């Protein structure tokens, strides 16, 4: 299967949310601190907590040695605290709104594919007023299935493709900030553009196989909309 490569126009872009569209670390790390403390568990260093932003929490919590049988209780407490208001301790990265608007204006289908629970992701997208730029408005936000603790990024992408009635062709691309985005897209034969402003470790995205890594919204727009010369506001 042929994948997207730089210089090729796209017809569908799937965006990750945390660390890609918005800087959500403050709310996420605060709620995770609260959850771990509530259950009498050690709170890891700030840099470790920041690495929780993006991947499924089960992966991150088991990665710090939390027994699998304790993961669900921590995640439940986390979600209760986060959804009570900390989900809005969050801000869009510079230029992102203009990237989404530019893509939509060019006739590109835009959607969000995140490991966040779908209902939570839709609240955040609506909070930032991004839904007018997405395919079907909030229906263009695809998130994790909370009834399946083993739901993966590849599963989310599969649901997005099915809902949008799209095949993973060479004009489809994922945009994300972590290796889980790259790997999840790759399972469908989809290339990923990595963004360096998120929470990846140095070289994480390139080592995972990202087709390109960009450092700014202007650079991202240049890849997704070849020939567009207007700098983003």
TrEMBL record:
Q: Which GO terms describe its molecular function?
A: hydrolase activity; protein tyrosine kinase activity
**The entry's keywords:** Hydrolase
Q: Which domain of life is it from?
A: Bacteria
Name the InterPro entries on file: HAD-like_hydrolase_sf (IPR050155), HAD-like_sf (IPR036412), HAD_2 (IPR041492), HAD_sf (IPR023214), PGP-like_dom2 (IPR023198)
Name the GO cellular-component terms: cytosol
Q: What Gene3D superfamilies does its record include?
A: HAD superfamily/HAD-like, Putative phosphatase, domain 2
Entry protein name: HAD family hydrolase
